[in-house]
Write a structure and sequence with these properties.
about 475 residues; alpha/beta; 21 helices; TIM Barrel
């Protein structure tokens, strides 16, 4: 596997392509945007052309094209989730991260299984239905079994018959056999970020622990898919290296997964470096990404990989998150805590968290804001439980058929939230949006949406198609 990973991230190819497209002319830009509008994706050269855009008018065209593609494929849906940090123990020395092993400025903690259940109950009480389980890259004495036990604890937690319906996982690279054990726990997506695909930069910022091994980390997605986990998520930490290089490397990684497994990543995350306790680098990124460049990154990704979900975390401010919804973001975290125990204790301890948050709002406020913008907050997990994952999901997504399921399911899950968790103001805004959205739908999706929402309003829960 090491030989393979060394070959599919081709740094010299990326550098050569970027040099050729530093200042694209208007015709090149128009040609790429026209191709992107066909929603079949872009190649490395075309992505490089878009990274070279600096003209205001061209940027607006880029953003408009991204908005059209986002609306055509995803409509006005935004999937919501919460990260659940079960431990901030770590054996690695990553110079940008508060969890790094030698950082004495944070309080270390790994939650017990009872504490994980209580944390999950706190999330259920807010109305969450899906979580991303996160741990530092070291575990208590149980080792990897601690992660498996923690997933079971999340699924076991119940509050007034409500529960978390899907657990996605972001943990250290595993062996193929360990990935098979992870799949057996009925996870949704396995997510891992390379942080930076640039080898020399990777070496400079990872100075201790197993994470120093670039190839072992890069090949982890291959092992996950070989083990049968067909929904995977990739990403980089923007700010460590030139964002243009990272975008093309993401495309190489995605293309390699398509080549080997027939399907690319289910999601791509776009975290941008934020201050972290005990890390000067986190406050002074080597390659700072401006707000305009960040919006450009999101838009380019939506054009390059049109059917892949783009995840925006609460690292970013509410304003930036709002601006990127129209550019391609399809999933957001909300009401997040990055310190273990932060939900039950209702403490946002950024000193012991992994990074500083930009959006501190509670879930209900985020949902109200999203709904006021005309977007449907979705808590749906239907595709995972009906087996619409990996290639099966893409087979429906690429011809546009998945909207007939996702639109109605988003509305029913949103209505369930409104009936059971929303404040009165959020309920009124949300209820009006649900009815307006159904009124604007046609055919089978409209019929499905009306029936599912009516079932929810008649007291049923967890209804999907």
């Amino acid at each position: 596997m090491e030989t393979a990973t060394q070959s599919f991230i081709r740094e010299q190819e990326i550098q050569d392509i970027l040099e050729k497209h530093t200042h694209p002319d208007n015709q090149q830009v128009q040609d790429v945007l026209s191709k992107a509008a066909e929603m079949k994706g872009l190649n490395l050269q075309e992505v490089a052309v878009l990274t070279g855009i600096n003209d205001h008018a061209q940027l607006e065209q880029l953003f408009q094209t991204a908005n059209q593609i986002k609306d055509t494929i995803y409509g006005k849906r935004l999937v919501l989730f919460a990260p659940l940090y079960i431990s901030n123990l770590c054996a690695n020395e990553c110079t940008y991260c508060a969890f790094r092993a030698k950082n004495k400025a944070i309080v270390r903690r790994s939650l017990t299984q009872d504490e994980i259940i209580h944390e999950t109950e706190a999330l259920i009480k807010q109305g969450h239905k899906r979580v991303l389980l996160v741990a530092g890259e070291s575990y208590p004495r149980q080792g990897f079994q601690y992660v498996l036990d923690s997933i079971q604890s999340v699924y076991a937690a119940k509050l007034n018959d409500a529960e978390i319906r899907r657990v996605n996982v972001n943990v250290a690279p595993l062996t193929t056999e360990e990935f098979k054990l992870l799949k057996a726990e009925k996870i949704g997506t396995y997510q891992i970020f390379q942080e930076t695909y640039h080898r020399e930069t990777y070496k400079k910022v990872h100075i201790g622990g197993k994470k120093m091994n670039y190839d072992w980390r890069l090949s982890s997605i291959h092992r996950a898919m070989e083990a049968g986990i067909d929904d995977v998520g990739i990403g980089v930490l923007f700010g460590l290296n030139d964002y243009r290089f990272e975008l093309l490397a993401l495309m190489q990684h995605s293309a390699e997964l398509e080549r080997v497994f027939g399907v690319g990543p289910h999601t791509i995350s776009v975290p941008r470096m934020e201050p972290a306790t005990g890390s000067d680098m986190a406050s002074h990124p080597p390659f700072p990404v401006s707000d305009l460049e960040f919006r450009k990154i999101v838009a380019i990704l939506r054009l390059a990989v049109p059917y892949t979900g783009i995840i925006m975390s609460t690292r970013e401010t509410a304003k930036m998150r709002r601006e990127t919804f129209a550019l391609g973001v399809s999933q957001i975290s909300a009401g997040s805590r990055t310190n273990p125990g932060g939900y039950e204790e209702e403490v946002e301890d950024e000193v012991s968290g992994q990074f500083s948050l930009g959006d501190h709002r509670p879930l209900d406020e985020v949902i109200r804001d999203v709904a006021e913008m005309g977007y449907i907050p979705s808590f749906c997990t239907g595709c995972y439980r009906l087996g619409r994952t990996g290639q099966d999901f893409m087979d429906l997504a690429k011809p546009g058929a998945i909207k007939a399921h996702c639109g109605p399911n988003a509305l029913s899950s949103f209505m369930e939230y409104l009936n059971n968790y929303a404040t009165p103001k959020t309920f009124e805004i949300g209820k009006q949006l649900v009815e307006q959205t159904i009124a604007g739908m046609q055919g089978v999706p409209a019929d499905r949406a009306r029936k599912l929402v009516d079932r929810v309003n008649n007291g049923q829960s967890d209804v999907f198609c």
